[in-house]
Amino acid sequence: MSPAALSLCILLQCAATLLSPAAGGNTVLKGADPGLEELSTNGKPLHGGVKYNMRKSLDLDQEGCYLQTGKKECLEECGFNATAKTIFIIHGWTMSGMFESWMHKLVSALMQRESEANVVVVDWIAMAQQLYPDAVNHTHDAGLQIAGMINWLQDEQQLPLEKVHLIGYSLGAHVAGYAGMFVRGTIGRITGLDPAGPMFEGAEAGKRLSPDDADFVDVLHTYTREALGVSIGIQQPIGDIDIYPNGGDVQPGCALGDVLAVAGNFMEVMKCEHERAVHLFVDSLMNKDHMSFAYQCTGPDRFKKGICLSCRKNRCNNIGYNTRKMRKRRNSKMYLKTRADTPFGGYHYQMKMHVFNRKQADNADPTFHVKLYGAHNDTANMFVDIHDETVGLNLTNTFLVFTEKDIGDLLKIRLSWEGDSETWNSVWKNIKKNFWAWNAKPPKPVLAVRRIRVKAGETQKKFTFCAQDPAAIEISPGDSLTFVKCRDGWEVKPRKRLAI
Ligand SMILES: *[C@@H]1O[C@H](CO)[C@@H](O)[C@H](O)[C@H]1NC(C)=O
Ligand SMILES: *[C@@H]1O[C@H](CO)[C@@H](O)[C@H](O)[C@H]1NC(C)=O
Ligand SMILES: *[C@@H]1O[C@H](CO)[C@@H](O)[C@H](O)[C@H]1NC(C)=O
Ligand SMILES: *[C@@H]1O[C@H](CO)[C@@H](O)[C@H](O)[C@H]1NC(C)=O
Q1: DSSP state at residue 316
Q2: How confident is the model at residue 2, as a pLDDT?
Q3: Which regions of the chain are under pLDDT 50?
């Protein structure tokens, strides 16, 4: 059974109580418990209460402070500042009944970035630590209660709704959706961090997070790989903008081998990919100087081909906390590649090269690699992935190159044709072609590349690189060609608008 299938099985079928919480306890977010008695005197069932732990100090082991609807004194005690931003963090389904370690990281990153904001951890653990379908059923109620809290804050403190930001992870994203739907007025922003898929995929807009739930709804999708017909993270776009890092299905650093080597546990594989959305968001709070961009594209395959790296007409956006508000459009999907660890951002290049086949080397099935030389550093030799297709001959090939480090201004590109031509494919083509002379050694295929056009996603600059020696543009297996900035006009200036 694949790890994805296994984790889904655990998610959907196994009782939460069967899985004992990890030893060691959870010291994150200690706080004065408002007391179960108080909750029950509110007429709420004991297990049904949502608690609001407002963080006051960066030291997360410090006691928090609880907000309670109807209790004005709590607002003062907690130092609630109604004119500042108010951020609610909403956790997801839980087996352990404890906050997971990401909560600590997210809270501290938010408090550092927005020192004046009211950062409130929504604790609906009692309703979320249930069989998955029951926890799903409780998202409605949890959202309703949060809406009640926000309505009370509006009445009591004239809380401006446009400054309210709900951040929900997994099942918590749909709780945020309900809260936004039930609240009086329109919440400023909801961020869905890999919103849960099972029982929400394909559901009508009123029963999941949707663009109607806030003025701006942005979603990060990190674990949409399907197993047994469902995926842990929802696949369909459900926001004004839906960002699918690394295609939204496989996250770098989360391969079975990578994770098992560190954690030795299948659940960790699921956690790695699902939770990646949270870590990308934390990264966007911490690394303001190096923002990661996502680019609008109709699908992951086109993105991987390097076709979509445009920022024109709002086609790109920052990811995570820095995402700029934009209206929902017909295609809300955006893509980017990331590194395996923080800082997750890297550098995208779109490259286009026309591969000439002048010598009828129709048997050529080239495997190209490129190496980029920058002002600061060079990259490794990287496979030119035309994405499951062979390099097109007499055609312009577009491909995406992603570098993990900033190599500075691109100075030089080396294109190499690895290995020899004797792939099974080319041998077979040759046998078919030269049937009567099949034992004759096939001629070495010769192709030619004159220039490579480059567009850097992060800077949106376009350049043209020409063969270093314009007289030598031919390439064969085992050879390489070097391209440098063309002598004149290598920087392609953006087309100017005609002034009328
Ligand atoms: C409340 O927040 C506003 C806006 O962030 C800020 O200008 C003000 O100083 C804060 N008030 C207090 C008492 O911290
Ligand atoms: C959800 O819970 C309510 C009671 O709280 C119950 O009536 C309803 O049948 C539940 N729905 C599902 C799908 O379990
Ligand atoms: C590519 O074009 C050349 C002429 O420029 C032609 O001789 C050759 O047959 C073409 N090859 C393919 C595969 O179309
Ligand atoms: C260039 O990259 C290599 C390999 O990643 C690294 O060891 C080296 O420190 C880098 N050099 C500079 C100047 O950044």
Answers
A1: E
A2: 55
A3: 1, 13-47, 421, 497-500
- Please, is 58 exposed, middle or buried when counting C-beta atoms within 10 Å of its C-beta (0-12, 13-18, 19+)? exposed
Nearest CA to ligand 1 atom 2: 84
pLDDT (0 to 100) of residue 38:
36
| Burial (CB count within 10 angstroms: exposed 0-12, middle 13-18, buried 19+), residue 94 | buried
Ligand 4 atom with least separation from CA of 377: 1
* Residue the block writes with tokens 């369909």: 236
How far apart are alpha carbons 113 and 58 in whole angstroms? 11
Interatomic CA distance for residues 411 and 406, integer angstroms: 13
**Which pLDDT value is given to residue 208?**
97
* Token pair belonging to 186: 């329109």
Pocket probe mutation, ligand 4, options 371, 376, 377, max atoms within 8 Å of Cβ: 377
Predicted confidence at residue 440, as pLDDT, reads 58
Structure tokens at 119: 């950062």
Query: What confidence score (pLDDT) does residue 227 get?
Result: 84
10 Å CB burial of residue 493 (0-12, 13-18, 19+) is: exposed
Lookup result for tokens 């290598």:
490
pLDDT of amino acid 432: 62
DSSP state of 306: T
Q: Which residue's alpha carbon is nearest to atom 8 within ligand 4?
A: 377
Tokens 């869905």, residue?
A: 192
C-alpha 361 – ligand 3 centre gap (Å): 9
Between the two ends of the chain, the Cα-to-Cα distance in Å is: 65
- Residue 359 has what pLDDT? 83
3-state secondary structure labels for all residues of 383-446: ECCCCCCCCCCCEEEEEEEEECCCCCCEEEEEEEECCCCCCHHHHHHHHHHCHHHCCCCCCCCC
In whole angstroms, what is the distance from residue 378 CA to residue 383 CA? 15
**pTM, rounded to two decimals:** 0.86
239 is written with which tokens? 């926001």
Residue 165's closest CA among 313, 49, 320, 33?
A: 320
What is the spatial distance between Cα 315 and Cα 385, in angstroms, rounded to a whole number? Answer: 24
Handedness of CA 430, 431, 437, 438 (dihedral sign): positive
- Return the structure tokens found at 48: 């049904």
Evaluate whether 54 touches 119 at the Cβ level (below 8 Å): yes
Query: What is the reported pLDDT for 57?
Result: 74
Closest alpha carbon to 171 in 153, 198, 152: 198
